[in-house]
TrEMBL record:
InterPro entries (UniProt xref): Cys-tRNA-ligase (IPR015803), Cys-tRNA-synt_Ia_DALR (IPR015273), Cys-tRNA/MSH_ligase (IPR024909), CysS_C (IPR056411), Rossmann-like_a/b/a_fold (IPR014729), tRNA-synt_1_cat_dom (IPR032678), tRNAsynth_Ia_anticodon-bd (IPR009080)
Enzymatic class: ligase
'KMSKS' region (motif): residue ranges: 263-267
Protein name: Cysteine--tRNA ligase
Organism of derivation: Rhodococcus rhodnii
Similarity section: Belongs to the class-I aminoacyl-tRNA synthetase family.
Span(s) of short sequence motif 'HIGH' region: 31-41
Domain Cysteinyl-tRNA synthetase class Ia DALR: 338-400
One MF annotation (Gene Ontology) recorded for this entry: ATP binding
Length: 464
């Protein structure tokens, strides 16, 4: 393979060499199902869905594990505040996340384990850690001894003297830098039996135990948001390594969605839920927007940026559907080498999108010149490229979520093109009144017109 990926652990771009030829194993930290998913949550799902699709496109079999954290302090608190059982609260929002992923065309994982279903694996890992001198029990709690791990901090770069776990001191904790593996039961809270007494798991042990259980002691890639590098992923790898597992060979982290320069989070109150955003744009347009920036970069949200992303996607969609209307069925074709080089370069989606939009411009020129075979070949290449990004306009997934959009857009294009030809003629004759009248009428109908060196392009405005 020629794929190169930025590895957080080595802070460098490395050749991706799977542990097993032709097979890749990937673990993605999934949702803590405490509330409605927002676009910041699902960006990670979209970003690493592109990684998975690219590996599949390169004939690499992928085992993809995405967990669900269904027991957590926040889940218990919110369920209590609303007078609901904790398990019902978690299940409700687990379904909400599943629906968001499905609507955005994120491929379902190979397996989606819940933390509550893997306490046995967590207990077994804690027993190994205690036996090896890396963990200790105290008053029903179990803690990881950070100072026992000489490599602690290698992933995040944290110096041991600067470590703050972001959790309470904990009853019986020997050092404030130690972190909790198991929490002793409290009155009214759910609990599971263990050799150290009833309780519930800490956050970090969940992912370590599930990743190893499903993917083995050594697996290829561990993914997640950059906010998880410390303490979550640092603690994950420390637990696994000290328990005797090699764990992940590559670490990939996606950037945040920001709003006003701040990370989008529930605590900041700047949440944009998936159902609300999908009132403004279609699911494929939201997916295009969330996946349009490089996965490691920050994505600054604004309504205008979302609308621009939706309009850019509709230019691709309009071209493909017009070709299918005028030239017949468009089959998935061959991906250009430049597109493949872009994705092989640490999933450089912006460069890949540049190739797609360049092909669309070339295809529109061929279509208007009546070169239908050429236009159809280009449209096939566009389908091949957008399929890898999960936004193929003719993918049945999108058709299932809309009312026959492709034929409708094709018919609309015929009508709009007639008006645009009339406008072009008026401009050539310097009849500005007629040219402006045509443009204003299209704008009133929700059709935005953009004049480009290749002629006018139109798109549907997202708020119409």
């Amino acid at each position: 393979m020629t794929l190169r990926l930025f590895d957080t652990a080595t802070r460098s771009v490395r050749d991706f060499v799977p542990r097993d030829l032709g097979h890749a194993s990937i673990y993605l930290c999934g949702a803590t199902v405490q509330g409605e998913p927002h676009i910041g949550h699902v960006r990670s799902g979209v970003a690493f869905d592109v990684l998975r699709r690219w590996l599949l496109a390169r004939d690499v079999d992928v085992a993809f594990v995405r967990n669900v954290t269904d027991i957590d302090d926040k889940i218990l608190r919110k369920a209590g505040e609303h007078g609901r059982p904790w398990w019902e609260w978690a299940a409700t929002y687990e379904r909400a996340f599943d629906d968001a992923y499905r609507r955005l065309g994120v491929l379902p994982p190979s397996v989606e384990p819940r933390a509550t279903g893997h306490v046995t694996q967590m207990v077994e890992m804690m027993e190994r850690l205690i036996e090896r001198g890396h963990a200790y029990a105290s008053n029903g709690n179990v803690y990881f001894d950070v100072l026992s791990d000489p490599q602690y901090g290698f992933l995040s770069g944290h110096r041991i003297d600067d470590v703050h776990q972001g959790e309470s001191a904990g009853e019986g904790k020997r050092d404030p830098r130690d972190f909790t593996l198991w929490k002793a039961a409290k009155p009214g809270e759910p609990s599971w039996p263990t050799p150290w007494g009833p309780g519930r798991p800490g956050w970090h042990i969940e992912c370590s135990a599930m990743a190893v259980y499903y993917l083995g002691s050594t697996f290829d890639i561990h993914c997640g948001g950059m906010d998880l590098v410390f303490p979550h992923h640092e603690n994950e790898v420390a637990q696994a390594r000290c328990a005797g597992d090699d764990f992940a060979r590559y670490w990939l982290h996606n950037g945040w969605v920001t709003l006003g320069g701040e990370k989008m989070s529930k605590s900041l109150g700047n949440v944009l839920s998936i159902p609300n955003v999908l009132q403004r744009v279609r699911a494929q347009e939201l997916r295009y927007y969330l996946g349009s920036a490089h996965y490691r970069s920050m994505l600054e949200y604004s309504p205008e940026a979302l609308d621009e992303g939706a309009a850019a996607y509709r230019r691709i969609e309009s071209f493909v559907t017009r070709v299918s209307t005028r030239a017949g069925a468009v089959e998935i074709g061959v991906r250009p080498e430049a597109f493949e080089r872009a994705l092989d370069d640490d999933l450089a989606v912006p460069a890949a999108l540049a190739e797609i939009h360049g092909a669309v411009r070339e295809g529109n020129t061929a279509l208007e010149a009546g070169k239908l075979d050429t236009a159809r070949d280009i449209a096939g290449a566009v389908r091949a490229m957008t399929s890898v990004l999960g936004v193929d306009p003719l993918d049945p997934h999108w058709a299932a979520g809309a009312t026959s959009s492709a034929p409708a857009l094709g018919a609309l294009d015929v009508l709009v093109r007639a008006d645009l030809e009339r406008r072009q003629q008026a401009r050539a004759e310097k009849n500005w009144a007629v040219a402006d009248e045509v443009r204003d009428r299209l704008a009133a109908a929700g059709v935005a017109v953009t004049d480009t060196p290749d002629g006018p392009e139109w798109s549907l405005e997202a708020d119409k």
